[in-house]
């Protein structure tokens, strides 16, 4: 289980007649800081967000802010169309990609984008992360897919939104919660989960699996994917209505 900073005992300033999102902003801040602590980001190369479906708002890392200096009050809040709701700082430049995912995938509650080393290497090599073993199958149902790079026109007009659209199209015939991650060709990984905390766990697992896959291919470049019956067994014993892994 990945631990993040405690969000208790925060001083909350109440403003009359203004919507308050302290808990949401605190969780988003804590997970963004955890990305740095877990070695998933270098400099400010990454961002995490969470959605509040009841209030139809998203909180996300502010653009270019150092993780060491980040506090909950720095976290901007926008609506699902990207309009500023609360906060003085500019949201992450990748906001539109996050919004595309939230608008398309109703069951996700958190999105994380990083340039973690091994997952980004697979994205730059423009190849999926194959499911070589049961460790991978415990978390992701099959290979982690590769979304295509945006076209010149998509880069010129709405680059970040179109990146999200390409991810959504990659999952057109795939359950986004059965494989809560994607590699964008030439760019890097996007990961999600039903909560932002689960997205953090998935991001950590993705990087470890990418490292294991890279080493597997180093040892044997002709390595074959895990057999389907083993993939099914390991994934379904942890996920779905008949799962029996862990404590009830």
Verbal overview:
Helices cover 36% and strands 14% of the residues. The protein has 248 residues and is of the alpha+beta class. It has a single domain (22-236), classed as Class II aldolase/adducin N-terminal domain (L-fuculose-1-phosphate Aldolase), CATH 3.40.225. Strands 4-3-2-1-5-8-7-6 form an eight-stranded mixed beta sheet, with helices on both faces. α2 (95-104) packs parallel to α6 (159-170) and α3 (117-125) crosses α7 (196-219). The radius of gyration is 18 Å and the shape is globular.
Q: Looking at the chains present, what oligomeric state does this protein adopt?
A: single chain
Proportion of β residues? 5-15%
What's the shape? globular
Order of strands, widest sheet:
4-3-2-1-5-8-7-6
Unreliable stretches (pLDDT < 50, length at least 5) are: 1-18
C-alpha-based Rg, rounded = 18 Å
Distance N to C terminus: 17 Å
Indicate how many domains the architecture comprises.
Answer: 1
Mean pLDDT: 91
CATH superfamily: Class II aldolase/adducin N-terminal domain
Please tell me the CATH architecture by its name: 3-Layer(aba) Sandwich
Sequence of secondary-structure elements: HEEEEHEHHEHHEEHH
Number of strands: 8
